[in-house]
Amino acid sequence: MEASSADTVRIVSRRMVRPSYGDTPMPPSEDIHLTPWDLYGISVTYIQRGILLPKPPAGAGDETSLFNNLVSSLARALGRYYHFAGRLAVEEHGDGTATILLRCTGEGAELVHAVAPGVAVADIVDPVYTPSSVVRALFPLNRPDGVRGLDAAMDSSLPVVWTQVTELADGVFIRSSACR
């Protein structure tokens, strides 16, 4: 059964997850200049990866506790790898040139909670042709109008990392996207 991507995945909530440093002091804000390879990469698309997991056992808590645990884990990971909580920025030099850099500000990564109750794990792994429209719906930045790294460089409100947790009928799909 192939559902259309428009009604397959429904967004429940979005939140910006800021780094949690625990007992460690917040690192100072810094700018990291991108390498030529990074500059090439941001003109293409975000790097996107996903993992398909079985649904947690019934006694492991409800979907809200799963999502809250992932929020906490992402916050701790961003505390260790705080660069991913930054933003791309463009500095114009006044002579017709510009520099794109990663500004490590700790603003956070976006975490999206979505549901696809009509999608089973088999809908993702069984089709001979991959990616199916169901799989495309799980990677929203892959659309032709999706966000590119250059968009994030020009709009400093866009995060460097996006993560989406999609609850399926019988599983969970976690997608993470990162700008080079």
Strand residues, percent: 25-35%
Which structural class fits the helix and strand makeup?
A: alpha+beta
Largest sheet: 5 strands, mixed
Q: Separation of termini? A: 35 Å
Distinct helical segment count? 6
Are there runs of 5+ residues with pLDDT below 50, and where?
1-6
Chain-averaged pLDDT: 82
From the spread of the alpha carbons, the general shape counts as flat
Rounded to an integer in angstroms, the radius of gyration calculated over CA atoms is 18 Å
Q: What's the count of strands?
A: 8
- Helix proportion: 25-40%
Give the topology string: H per helix, E per strand. Answer: HEEHEHEEEHHHEE
Q: Output the strand order for the largest sheet.
A: 1-6-7-8-3
Brief description of this entry?
The protein is built from 6 helices and 8 strands. It is α+β, with helices and mostly antiparallel strands. Residues 1-6 have low confidence and may be disordered.
Fold and architecture overview:
Helices cover 26% and strands 32% of the residues. It has 180 residues and is an alpha+beta fold. The strands form 2 sheets. Strands 1-6-7-8-3 form a 5-stranded mixed sheet. A 3-stranded antiparallel sheet has the order 2-5-4. It is built from 6 helices and 8 strands. The chain starts with a helix and ends with a strand. A hairpin with a 2-residue loop joins β7 and β8.
SSE map:
Blueprint: H1 5-8, E1 10-17, E2 30-33, H2 36-42, E3 47-54, H3 63-80, E4 87-92, E5 98-104, E6 109-116, H4 121-125, H5 133-138, H6 149-154, E7 161-168, E8 171-178
Parallel strand pairs: 6-7
Antiparallel strand pairs: 1-6, 2-5, 3-8, 4-5, 7-8
